[in-house]
Design brief:
This protein is of the alpha/beta class. The chain is 29% helix and 23% strand. The strands form 2 sheets. Strands 6-5-4-3-2-1-14 form a 7-stranded mixed β-sheet. The two termini are 20 Å apart. The structure holds zinc ion (ZN) (2 copies).
Amino acid sequence: MTLKTTFTTLGTAGGPVPKLKRAQPAHLISRGDLRILIDCGEGAMDQLQRSGTDFRKVRDIFITHHHFDHIGSLFACLGKLMMMQSKEPLNIYGPVGTQRIIDALLTACDVTWEIGLGFAGQNGVHPRDFVRVQELSPGNKVEIEDICFTCCENTHFRSEEHFGQEGPVSLSYRIDAPDRSFVFTGDTGPCSALETMAKGVDVLVGELMDIEKTMERTRLQNPNMPAERMELMAKHMAEHHLVSEQLGELAARAGVRQVVAVHIPLDTINAATAPTYVEKIASTFDGEITIANDFDVF
Ligand SMILES: [Zn+2]
Ligand SMILES: [Zn+2]
């Protein structure tokens, strides 16, 4: 039997602000019995279950970066597996800083572990027994059965001339399976390293930002935000994210076949307005374009 590799967009929201119809970033690679999670935003375990995947089947999680929208459910993942007495290894991969976060979450699990079911002398499973962390550097490869993950640094935290220096790193992943290939950009600005890594993949799953409308919403929701913080937000959005046309440019330069837009920052980007964004992406990219919803399968 030939196995098909699929990419499910479990959570297509972007940014930490809760959305009405989209969960926080989380994506699932499926192939045969393999279930691999990319990013673990708040609600990821619920989204897995709703997509028909028992969350205990996920034994590998790749984290792109440590903004809260991408990691909110890591504690829930450890805690639920502990409560269900999981014994299978859980591998968590991510940029430098991942170990520190997981160590702190493991410590937080101590309190719950000590309580257990409320009887003295219990000896339940602790996530320390099954969690393994591997911090990745740009260029590292991870092979899981016949799927190969490669990563590169992107420009979500800093411009390319600063790559290789001390400081936080944000990663993009390339996923090569025997039948298909994907790139998941994570959060990023325009980035030539990412363009190179994405060369010729079938599907590029990339983030989509609307700076003007997101700033408008930020202003409305935070009327007392100091002007300085506001300016910093605008600069972050312009330099560290991709607007529609830039997503198209990235896909065109990499020569990919299909673009899937995720990390949707606003509730106003929905079925009614999606064609406007598709049109903007199509102004710079010729292939197939989808503005993804939660639980879409590619
Ligand atoms: Zn994000
Ligand atoms: Zn981010």
